[in-house]
Specification:
Helix content: 40-55%
Shape: elongated
Largest sheet: 8 strands, mixed, barrel
CATH class of the largest domain: Alpha Beta
Number of strands: 9
CATH topology of the largest domain: TIM Barrel
CATH superfamily of the largest domain: EAL domain
Number of domains: 3
Number of helices: 18
Distance between the termini: 22 Å
Length: about 400
Amino acid sequence: MPNLIDVFVGRQPVFDKELKTFAYELLFRANREDNHAVIVGGDSASAQVMIHAFGDIGIKDIAGEHKVFINFTEGLLLREYQPFFPKSKVVIEILETVRVTPSLLSAVKKLRESGYVIALDDYVFNSQLECLEPLADIIKVDILRVGPRQLIEHVKRLKEQGAKLLAEKVETQAHFEFCKKIGFDYFQGYFFAKPVIIQGQRLPTNKVSVLELLASVYDPDVDMQKLSDIISRDVSLSQKLLKFLAQNLEGNHKISSIHDAVVRFGLNRLKSWASMLVLSGVDDKPEELFQTSLTRAKYCELVAEKLAIRPKELYFTVGLFSAFDALMDQDLEVLLAKLNLDEVIFEALMTGKNMPGIILQSVKGLERGETDFTLPGDCTPADLSHCYLQAMQFTQTVVNG
């Protein structure tokens, strides 16, 4: 089994005036022991929070149906593509350290016009940041850095502009009562709750796959099938993408293949996602179980092609996730339930009784050197051995870059 990597996200609630949970702020945490901010590159920290929340742990497991505030650095704001996460779920929190430039103002304006909620973080009424005020839906005020008289003065002014106000660093009952009285809408601080750390685990990410994906999404002649091929060759990327779609896709559409998932995700979101994957960090090359999964996937696809069965991508997906329980060291049925896969795929992996399942059982038989497994369709043992050899050669080509 590969070494699973522990991932962590800090979560602190934001309350409304009735002390009902309005949202959660998600915070970078490097481990479970140190429940405080760790100094790492701002872009990397935010990218890790996003990838862990939306791909590794799952945003519904972290925040349920609530919105989440995520810090955005100047570097992330200036990127030109659409963020991969849903507009209905994320509040883009602009850090107080940004340099206000025409480019930054234009980027924030585009994000807001496209439907994202914008918040200003740790606001202390700095005149240099004043031009961001009209673009903010929510302004978070660090009440420990602003005196009561100044608070009253600026709260009135900002409320007249239509902004919602969030009091940060609320540490006492008196703080809460005062801020509520003068017009704050939301509240956050140690008086209510300290951040808690949510822990999950992820599979190692293959540097070659991520960099190949990043290069391909920015190719002017990009082909969605090529992007699907890159992602489907890496079970870690495939799992992240499927988990995101399962928890954030409108309706209850079942995913029939990685290509189906890629098309539904869309090119702009793939650009954002690929860049965040690079920023969040990548790991070593796949270990043996990754290679087993990829060989099985290609084998199932090749046999489906030989039998003229469509869609062949469905068969590839069956093979790709056939060792998912061993990779994650968890019950397969529980893992699959979080990916919203097509029922045909689910049945193949759980029972092995339909045609994709029979093909999967045949490759498992070949791996064990058995000869008494059911032959799929009119395939001969020689046909299957040839497909298996081709699949192993394909895997070696992928692993060796």
